[in-house]
Specification:
Shape: elongated
Protein name: TBCC domain-containing protein 1
Structural class: alpha/beta
Family: Belongs to the TBCC family.
Main location: cytoplasm
Subcellular location: Cytoplasm, Cytoskeleton, Microtubule organizing center, Centrosome; Cytoplasm, Cytoskeleton, Spindle pole
Largest sheet: 13 strands, mixed
Pfam families: TBCC
Number of strands: 20
Length: 555
């Protein structure tokens, strides 16, 4: 069974000219874990053996203990695998998706979904293209750090610095790369989903409709939503099955041929629709660019925002995924419920993400304050950043990170709890400081790394000093006419941070009272008031917060 499937000589239904196949982005963007023991030299052979071992034990749903034993990994890492799989599964009704964090072990993962998840750990991400204009790089990244010389030998940070958004892989490039990966590995993948029958040659492996549905973890069709639809409904291979009778298994070679035809058609379509562009000046400005994708299958982009403030409400975002890319020296508010979010290549910014029900990935950022309410957070290759977290699962830290700090969630807006309920975030569970660190080197990129570094653990984050913890206030006017019931931070604070916040509030109240009760003549009160206004104005300019007022006045 370890031989890949050959193409069938039997008749293969022609791919529909109007139905295009697409890779599901979520497993490739949020489902890859930098764990060497999940990457196999021969994934087909290794996963076939794993499948046979678990099937022989009558295991159809795999828990942490069985997975840890099979892969020789720790229970914590096995639990991480199951949790990450839950965050990228295609079926919202799967028990692993609907279970609470503490119930993951008792529920376990479907065996075939787990096999596919482990297989794609061999995927290599598409690398960004180099920038030709050094002056443009200096304009985007004006500062240097003592870490630069050290990091250049260890991580792709310097490479990332040499790219603005337009020189990172486009959505079309990434889709073509993922399609090419599936095209190369599809025979192996179908072998793992197939079952042997008595017979000789190419017809000895068959795939059932149920097995075919598991491909929905990796692929979807253009006229179908990203979640919840049956993949077999779009496949003519099973289209004529009697709905009142179990579908007859189909030769795996026939399924392979049909899917390869569709992938080839889709690759051709992507190439024709999005021809490769040479590095050069973009057609429009990089500043304050927001792109809404034409379908819910692709994310919305907020990119190139610089020295500005930006606000997006739930009514502004029709997509369930969002990417904030290459935003600098700005404040960005995303006051909306989302499924997935990515923050990439930002610096000297404050970014507020409302409620993210699946996963957030923050990557290649510097000196950024990120305020997130989410189920899961992954931090990769960042430095000098502070994360204010309301997170239900362990924050994952991977790659080259330096001087990271974590703190409890510190803000609210009126519809926050409504949005959290919508995407399934529990305010009573906050594992903001219970981080899990993996390796410094990401095996999913194709950059070369120095020998001996591959097994090094990522640098952990430190807790923010409670004396430096402050409540972040989102101005009421940013919400427009949107009103909700949230009046305060829904995540309870631990004692040191609660004490610090109460101390700050008490100090402010005492200062206000002293000023009100100061025995000053009216002219002196006016002078004091003017002095306070001057100091406040100076602070607004020095901190850059004056931009927020200007930006909101101009909206």
């Amino acid at each position: 069974m370890t031989d890949p499937i050959g193409l069938s000589t039997s008749t293969i239904p022609n791919p529909s000219p109007t139905t295009l196949l697409h890779p599901r982005r979520e497993p490739f963007e949020h489902g890859l874990l930098p764990m060497q023991k999940l990457i196999f030299t021969d994934p087909l052979q290794a996963l076939t053996s794993l499948k046979q071992k678990l099937v022989s034990s009558s295991i159809q749903r795999v828990d942490s203990a069985a997975l840890a034993d099979s892969l020789q990994i720790s229970l914590d890492h096995a639990r991480l695998v199951l949790d990450t799989l839950a965050s990228v599964l295609h079926s919202e009704s799967d028990p692993l998706v609907t279970s609470r964090f503490d119930d993951v072990d008792s529920v376990g993962a479907d065996l075939l979904d787990l096999i596919l998840f482990l297989y794609i750990q061999s995927y290599k991400r598409l690398l960004p293209r180099l920038h030709k204009d050094a002056a443009a790089v200096a304009d985007v990244w004006p500062s240097t750090s003592a870490f630069d010389g050290y990091l250049s030998a260890l991580s792709p940070l310097q490479l990332v610095r040499c790219n603005t958004r337009r020189f990172l892989p486009s959505q079309a490039d990434e889709e073509a790369h993922q399609l090419s990966y599936l095209q190369k590995h599809l025979a192996n993948i179908l072998s793992l989903l197939s079952e042997p029958v008595e017979g000789e040659g190419e017809e000895s492996l068959v795939i059932s409709m149920e097995g075919f549905e598991h491909l929905g973890f990796l692929i979807q069709f253009e006229d179908k939503g990203s979640d919840g639809d049956f993949l077999s409904q779009a496949a003519p291979i099973f289209a004529n099955s009697d709905p009142d009778m179990p579908a007859v298994p189909v030769p795996a070679s026939q399924v392979l041929g049909w899917l390869l035809q569709n992938i080839a058609s889709s690759l051709e379509h992507v190439t024709e629709k999005n021809p490769a562009k040479e590095n050069g000046p973009p057609s429009g400005s990089d500043q304050d660019v927001v792109k809404a994708s034409p379908s819910v299958r692709s994310p919305c982009f907020i990119e190139g925002v610089s020295k500005s403030s930006y606000v997006k409400q739930a009514s502004d975002l029709k997509n369930s995924s969002l990417k904030v890319i290459n935003c600098h020296d700005s404040v960005i508010y995303i006051l909306a419920p989302l499924r997935y979010a990515t923050i990439y290549g930002c610096s000297d910014a404050t970014i507020v993400l409302g409620a993210v029900g699946k996963a957030v990935r923050v990557e290649h950022c510097e000196r950024v304050h990120v305020i997130i309410a989410a189920k899961r957070v992954c931090i990769a290759n960042c430095r000098e950043c502070v994360f204010f977290l309301g997170v239900n699962h362990h924050p994952l830290i991977v790659g080259d990170n330096h001087k990271l700090q974590v703190a409890p969630y510190n803000t609210y807006y009126s519809r926050l709890e409504e949005h959290m309920t919508e995407v399934g975030i529990e305010a009573t569970i906050n594992r903001w400081d219970d981080t899990l660190e993996l390796g410094m080197i990401d095996p999913h990129n194709s950059l070369s790394h120095p020998a001996g570094v591959s097994d090094a653990q990522a640098e952990s984050a430190t807790r923010l000093d409670p004396d430096h913890f402050t409540k972040f206030l989102i101005p009421n006017w940013l919400e427009g006419e949107s009103t909700g019931s949230t009046k305060d931070n829904p995540f309870p604070l631990t004692d040191p941070y609660l004490t610090s916040q109460q101390k700050n509030q008490n100090n402010l109240g005492e200062t206000k009272q002293i000023l009100r009760e100061a025995p000053l003549e009216e002219n002196l009160k006016r002078e004091l008031s003017c002095a306070l206004h001057v100091y406040f104005r100076d602070w607004l300019y020095a901190s850059g917060n004056i931009r927020q007022l200007y930006c909101q006045q101009s909206d």
